């Protein structure tokens, strides 16, 4: 299976390697083709157009290459590299993505490892700031989801209800301490990707595509939250069961402290005495009404004499 190639262009070799190392932690399975073009030959800061060109050629497997850059001149070097490729007659679909360096690269690495196409990788990378923006209460940037061929996976779309009821569904509680953060979200997406049908996660009426770690992150699922796993189409039952088990397992992480419901009750009987008036005696006209007896006191768990009659 061919995969979309990824290229990281940075002024700092150490920065690029650290970003790649962080992104690869999220991959569960084979790593995607990924090359780094960063720093100068003498270990200094800078970018080299020839190194960028060679990295693109090395990462290309025939399905296109996505390029991530850090600062302005990295874009200039990438533009020069693309011109050199064109002069050489190389026909490689290369997209330089307007995505955040760390979040975008992480999203792209996860998607590329799953075998996603270039359009999907572009959309994931461009929308990768959505969880952070939502957490901070900032509106999404206009560029998110507006690129040609890219479907938005932002927070607003995650709230849209599905048109048809699910073919299978299960409720599961998140038990790992840090909730569905980056690594668990990537694990869920990797597992969901192995099933042909659509899989969604629902938290309090808000839904996310279970095959997208960025979409999952927009739900901000924390320890103790209940999540509904919804499956649609072929193998829906198997997909829902597998993902439910994965979430319930805690992903091998430390379990959090989930508050238990208050099930306590007062086992001590109430000894407060309750006054129950005696039954009214029958009386006839012209007869003297006898003086009623004094009230009879009963504990609440006793049956009053008057009620036994």
From TrEMBL:
<dbReference type="InterPro" id="IPR004701">
    <property type="entry name" value="PTS_EIIA_man-typ"/>
</dbReference>
<feature type="domain" description="HPr">
    <location>
        <begin position="167"/>
        <end position="254"/>
    </location>
</feature>
<dbReference type="GO" id="GO:0016020">
    <property type="term" value="C:membrane"/>
</dbReference>
<feature type="domain" description="PTS EIIA type-4">
    <location>
        <begin position="3"/>
        <end position="133"/>
    </location>
</feature>
<dbReference type="InterPro" id="IPR000032">
    <property type="entry name" value="HPr-like"/>
</dbReference>
<feature type="region of interest" description="Disordered">
    <location>
        <begin position="277"/>
        <end position="309"/>
    </location>
</feature>
<dbReference type="InterPro" id="IPR039643">
    <property type="entry name" value="DhaM"/>
</dbReference>
<dbReference type="InterPro" id="IPR035895">
    <property type="entry name" value="HPr-like_sf"/>
</dbReference>
<comment type="function">
    <text>General (non sugar-specific) component of the phosphoenolpyruvate-dependent sugar phosphotransferase system (sugar PTS). This major carbohydrate active-transport system catalyzes the phosphorylation of incoming sugar substrates concomitantly with their translocation across the cell membrane. The phosphoryl group from phosphoenolpyruvate (PEP) is transferred to the phosphoryl carrier protein HPr by enzyme I. Phospho-HPr then transfers it to the PTS EIIA domain.</text>
</comment>
<protein>
    <recommendedName>
        <fullName>Phosphocarrier protein HPr</fullName>
        <ecNumber>2.7.1.121</ecNumber>
    </recommendedName>
</protein>
<dbReference type="GO" id="GO:0047324">
    <property type="term" value="F:phosphoenolpyruvate-glycerone phosphotransferase activity"/>
</dbReference>
<dbReference type="Pfam" id="PF00381">
    <property type="entry name" value="PTS-HPr"/>
</dbReference>
<dbReference type="Pfam" id="PF03610">
    <property type="entry name" value="EIIA-man"/>
</dbReference>
<feature type="compositionally biased region" description="Low complexity">
    <location>
        <begin position="298"/>
        <end position="309"/>
    </location>
</feature>
<dbReference type="InterPro" id="IPR001020">
    <property type="entry name" value="PTS_HPr_His_P_site"/>
</dbReference>
<dbReference type="GO" id="GO:0019563">
    <property type="term" value="P:glycerol catabolic process"/>
</dbReference>
<dbReference type="GO" id="GO:0009401">
    <property type="term" value="P:phosphoenolpyruvate-dependent sugar phosphotransferase system"/>
</dbReference>
<dbReference type="InterPro" id="IPR012844">
    <property type="entry name" value="DhaM_N"/>
</dbReference>
<keyword id="KW-0808">Transferase</keyword>
<comment type="subunit">
    <text>Homodimer. The dihydroxyacetone kinase complex is composed of a homodimer of DhaM, a homodimer of DhaK and the subunit DhaL.</text>
</comment>
<dbReference type="InterPro" id="IPR036662">
    <property type="entry name" value="PTS_EIIA_man-typ_sf"/>
</dbReference>
<comment type="function">
    <text>Component of the dihydroxyacetone kinase complex, which is responsible for the phosphoenolpyruvate (PEP)-dependent phosphorylation of dihydroxyacetone. DhaM serves as the phosphoryl donor. Is phosphorylated by phosphoenolpyruvate in an EI- and HPr-dependent reaction, and a phosphorelay system on histidine residues finally leads to phosphoryl transfer to DhaL and dihydroxyacetone.</text>
</comment>
